[in-house]
Amino acid sequence: YAKLLVETALDDAATQHLKVAPYCSYISKVIADQPEKYLGLVPQEIRAQFGLPGDTTK
Predict the structure, then answer these.
(1) Residue-by-residue pLDDT tens, the chain, 58 positions
(2) Contacts of 15 (CB under 8 A, 6+ apart)
(3) 50 and 22 in contact (C-beta within 8 Å)?
(4) Structure pTM?
(5) I want to staple 39 with a disulfide (CB 3.0 to 4.6 A). Which of 4, 11, 18, 35 is the partner?
(6) Helix extents (H) in the chain
């Protein structure tokens, strides 16, 4: 259920055009596992801080 909760929250953030700072390691993992869908929510300048790639092509 955790993944569903996180994906729902990320989808809601996308719908509202919000940005995400994934301080929770599980949220970072969900974003990293689906970068084409969620990486754009994390500002590029802070992605490295959370171990995320710099762009959506990685």
Answers:
(1) 999 999 999 999 999 999 999 999 999 999 999 999 999 999 999 999 999 998 755 4
(2) none
(3) yes
(4) 0.89
(5) 35
(6) 2-15, 25-33, 35-38, 44-47
